[in-house]
Specification:
The chain contains nine helices and four strands, in the order βαβββαααααααα. By secondary structure, it is an alpha+beta fold.
Length: 215
């Protein structure tokens, strides 16, 4: 039975799962959810994700939600297919992957999400972005990126010399972020910029990012 992803192409969380599937070379079916009509807040979608958020995921009898958890499941189940995204052959390396995945989820995601909402989403509803909010969140994001710059001065990727979920999970929001006037937060940090140039040109990233459309 084919893997099913219930989501939307513009969604960073949906894209996170699709990039992982592409890195693994796995077949899947994307089932679009009409967010405008509120389908994600209604049945039958709520039976897949009771919180009414995309994506939801089905793999045979396995039903999951939360994009990062889905990707961990895929990386573990298919560790011998495609890219080993958890660096599972080394306890030390896999621990570093988990560490930097936590950093992404708890340090990077919040400010980047608020910034993208202010710059991209709010204007679509005819409202002006709050520049004070943007400045505050950019300051927070800058501190995170300074840590990344230091880390990436010592290794090619966040968890070491091999690409992993720790890197992949940053890609969807950065696809949008790099199209904004704030992209210099990445390009002004040479090691972070080199890292982004690398991960953004991976075939899986190129394939999925071409389908993302918020701007």
């Amino acid at each position: 039975m084919a893997i099913k992803v219930h989501g939307a192409l513009f969604s960073t969380c949906t894209a996170r799962v699709l990039i992982c599937l592409c890195e693994k070379g796995l077949d899947y079916e994307l089932l679009p959810i009409d967010m405008v009509a509120g389908a994600h807040k209604q049945q039958p979608f709520r039976s897949l994700n009771p919180f009414g958020e995309i994506p939801a995921f089905e793999d045979g009898e396995v039903s999951l939600f939360e994009s990062r958890a889905i990707n961990r499941y895929l990386a573990r189940k298919h560790k011998d297919i495609g890219t080993d995204l958890l660096l599972s052959n080394s306890f030390t390396q896999s621990a570093l992957v988990e560490t930097w995945m936590e950093v992404e989820a708890h340090k990077f995601d919040s400010p980047s999400s608020v910034i993208l909402r202010q710059i991209i989403v709010i204007p679509k509803y005819g409202k002006a972005p709050d520049q004070q909010v943007i400045e505050t969140e950019m300051e927070k994001l800058g501190k995170v990126l300074d840590v990344y710059e230091e880390r990436l001065s010592k290794s090619k990727y966040l968890a070491g010399e091999n690409y992993s979920l720790a890197d992949l999970h940053h890609i969807p929001p950065l696809v949008y972020f790099m199209k904004t006037s704030k992209a210099n937060a990445i390009t002004s940090r040479p090691h972070v910029s080199a890292w982004w140039n690398d991960i953004s040109l991976r075939p899986a990233t190129v394939k999925i990012s071409a389908t993302m459309s918020l701007l």
